[in-house]
Amino acid sequence: MKILITGGAGFIGKWLIEKMPPDVEVVIIDSLDEQVHRKSQDFAPELLARAKCIKADVQDIADYREAIAGTDVVIHLAAQTGTGQSMYEISRYVQQNANGTAKLLELISSLDRKPRRMVLSSSRAVYGDGAYTDGKSVLYSQGRSLENLQKGIWEVCGSDGEPLTSLPMQETHLTKPTSVYGLTKLWQEQLMQIYCESQGIDLVTLRFQNVYGPKQELGNPYTGIIGIFTNAIVQGNRLELFEDGKVTRDFVFVGDVAEAVIQCATYEQPLNSIINVGSGEAVTLIEVVETIAEVIGKKAEYNISGRFRVGDVRHAIADMERYKTLLGEWKPTSLKDGIAQYLEWYLGEEPLEQSTLEASLREMEQKGLLMKKQ
Description:
Number of helices: 13
Radius of gyration: 20 Å
Helix content: 25-40%
Strand order of the largest sheet: 3-2-1-4-5-9-14
Shape: globular
Largest sheet: 7 strands, parallel
Structural class: alpha/beta
Number of strands: 18
Strand content: 15-25%
Distance between the termini: 58 Å
């Protein structure tokens, strides 16, 4: 089997290479974007030892036209990530995520023998605020209004002004992104679905929750709050928690994600499905901080600031029933065990400078995307 991985030198790509079956031929396409690869714009030795590595933007199809020939499976990871940054670097996200996917599909359309399967790394961001219930029926929010957020009304409310109860995100739920990033991931899904259906290519779309773990770029302040929180607690810096600290997220360990991707890529039968990948457990920001502090063995100093990011959703958790039905048992790494593995790796890395994080927050503030309740 021959597998092409776009964005294969990134966070998830490195884990895929580590876990990839030895009899699989692997080709990596990666632009080595400085925001994701701040230390070096060269491929890591472990990638060069295992795969054919081509430095190219996924949009520059002439640079990897020959390498894609004979590919059985394409794993499409290449994308700009980060909901906050996407709200002001709009054209960059549209260009890389939407046009990049379009160019990849144009190249595939020119092949005499097309891949039998494509695996897309999508995101829970396509769901936006997700589905809620008032105890009687499933409701889809119009989103949290700026007026409510400025008043410190953090929960999603119904027409009567009462808070609604969030539901686990199901693949059949309405997709209604609240960020440019989420919208571009939905466009990726739709582009690939239309193309793959027309060509009889088996498409697996994986909607990841918040992926964390070793090998995630510490110098990128736009992704990875596990890294930001760990960095602050280890260095003894005071943490800021947005809103009231009770935002919930589903954190899924990168090793589990890599195994799910490989399982889908190598699965013998057709799948043709959208599948969530998360731990299936939601934790608040406060709980995350306290868990990290417990693993590190230090007290976490934090303040709940009442600031909020425009476009953030309040609650996110994956419903994993479809995964279990299609692919079998799902036993995700616990948050505590995952953080322990992350910490072991983190202590051998150069820490994120506090000034880098502060600069990214100032940038969002200046763009009117980071505000404080009035």
